[in-house]
Specification:
By secondary structure, the protein is an alpha/beta fold. The radius of gyration is 17 Å and the shape is globular.
Length: 222
């Protein structure tokens, strides 16, 4: 059966001196380190294509940081960045705030903290996983249509939706400790999809921009 590998690329580091949870807020740009991460990933994909990979599709979340992360890869591979709304960051009640114990103690937030399994403060994990995996399957099928069996796609997205999709693909519980997500800045969660059935048949995680992680922001995404 035809298959395709879809690389879920988390965006690079964001310039966020206030340390807020920026979520879906507009105009949060990459930091200088984040731009270097994006360029490093572009070099990684360029080397992959030199070695025979056929990357024929590049999509990004509509948010600024994802579009900016995609740009160097688009230039390196000669691809257009297509916008994919299904891989946008998760909705979150705490968007725009510093999430710390003092903020969480405010009574106005209490009703959003009653169910961490869903979670009650934002978009359900199940909904995030479903929309991202649907986008992955569609990207895999489009890649095969454009480039034949084995052609690949890149989707530039955000930590939490990528992690929820990975947990779902691996058959694991979606509730988790945000500090333990294996999804660093500019990392790749690569899913190989059987395009006939839409099933994820294998998954691989890599960090092509690992050299830029020391000293980078470590606050989990939404």
């Amino acid at each position: 059966m035809p298959s395709s590998t879809v690389h879920l690329l988390r965006h690079g580091e964001v310039y966020n001196p206030a340390g807020v949870l920026y979520g879906r807020l507009p105009e949060y740009h990459l930091s200088e380190r984040g731009r270097r991460m994006a360029e490093c990933v572009a070099e990684h994909f360029a080397q992959q294509t030199h070695d025979g990979a056929r990357i024929v599709l590049l999509k990004a979340s509509p948010l600024t940081r994802a579009q900016e992360t995609a740009a160097p890869t688009a230039a390196a591979l000669g691809l257009e960045v297509e916008t994919e709304p299904r891989i946008i960051e998760a909705e979150n009640h705490f968007e725009g705030l510093k999430v710390n114990p003092a903020e969480l103690a405010r009574p106005r937030h209490w009703r959003y903290l009653v169910n961490p399994l869903r979670p009650s403060w934002g978009e359900p994990y199940e909904a995030q996983a479903a929309r991202v995996l649907a986008a992955v399957v569609d990207a895999a099928r489009t890649a095969v249509d454009r480039g034949g069996d084995g052609a690949q796609a890149v989707l530039v997205a955000h930590q939490l939706p990528i992690w929820a999709a990975r947990l779902k693909a691996e058959g694991r519980a979606l509730w988790h400790d945000p500090r333990k997500r294996e999804c660093t800045l500019a990392s790749l969660t690569s899913l190989t999809v059987d395009t006939a059935t839409g099933a994820v048949v294998s998954l691989r995680y890599t960090e092509p921009a690992a050299a830029f992680l020391p000293g980078a922001a470590t606050t989990p995404g939404a």
